Amino acid sequence: MDKYKEVVETLIRFRDERDWAQFHDSKNLALALLLEASELNELFLWKKESQAEEVNPERLKEELADVLTYSLLLAEKHHLDIFDIVLEKIRKNGEKYPVEKAKGTAKKYTEL
């Protein structure tokens, strides 16, 4: 079994054993994702750039896991393969941000 399937199946089993699927509609999953992303951002809030790079690795792992968990649950609910949608997004971004125009700049594609 590949790692992706193992993670998703373990996550779904964990959820189902606790009868939490009843709470996991798309709205609640999206809101939970937002809250967990905020907790991730909190690790870096009000820190200077050099301090932000020295974030506690255990806390970073915990918050990233929470963000990814809700992302996976939301994708699974809509029968989306997270790797497929990320690869598709990279392809689309490649069209919007061609190397010859975007390299070395943080401008939005509409400003290139």
UniProtKB/TrEMBL annotation:
Keyword Hydrolase: yes
Keywords attached to this entry: Hydrolase
One GO BP: nucleoside triphosphate catabolic process
Pfam families (UniProt xref): MazG-like (PF12643)
Any GO molecular function: nucleoside triphosphate diphosphatase activity
Superkingdom as given in the UniProt entry: Bacteria
PANTHER family cross-referenced by the UniProt entry: DCTP PYROPHOSPHATASE 1
Protein name (database record): Nucleotide pyrophosphohydrolase
Organism: Odoribacter splanchnicus
